[in-house]
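Human:
Class, as today's exercise, you are to examine the entry below, and be ready to discuss the fold:
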Amino acid sequence: MMPSHPPVAFFDFDGTLTRGDSLMPFLRQLAGTPKFLLEISLLSPVLAAYLCGWIRNDRAKVAVLKRLLRGRHRDELFRAGTQFSRSFLPKMLRPEGMERLQWHQSEGHCCVLVSASLDVYLETWAREHGMDALICSQLIYDHELATGELAGNNCFGPEKVKRVQAWLKERQVATTYAYGDSKGDLPLLRTATYGHLWNGRQFVRVET
């Protein structure tokens, strides 16, 4: 019989542990403001279609990543990600989310970051903030150069549930917690023993 695993707390990143989106600030810092604004303006039809619900989240995301990351070396991206994690992300952190993370860590719970954002900066952040595991979106590389495509599906919505269930499969876990801030997080929150949604003021329990 497998030994029982301690409780696990799954945390969304953008809007839960931070006060907003982290991907666009990362891309802006990487590309520089003039190039970033130019590329985003060229992508405005795609972004407008996404906001109107005409194309899926993952398609809009890949379009942005191809414009701004394609052809960049893997090492360059991870170096930039480490710098971004240390210099910019501290200014974005949501105190209430970080308090929840620190409480779970103080209780000896296993803490896992589950995010649609990229590993190029989340790896450093997760390691330096004591996360036990990272489940997130990753880029495809061709000869160490980013293609702008994602390896597998965007880690969003039902895909988060799929990846978390795969991670839990080999672990005997009786109690799980999950934290999120959007409708896209609800599928994961509803699978947890205790799911909590940020409502703009506080984290509230979600009915399973």
Remarks:
- Residues 26 and 32 are 10 Å apart (CA to CA).
- Residues 8-206 form a domain with the Rossmann fold fold (CATH 3.40.50.1000).
- The two ends are 28 Å apart (CA to CA).
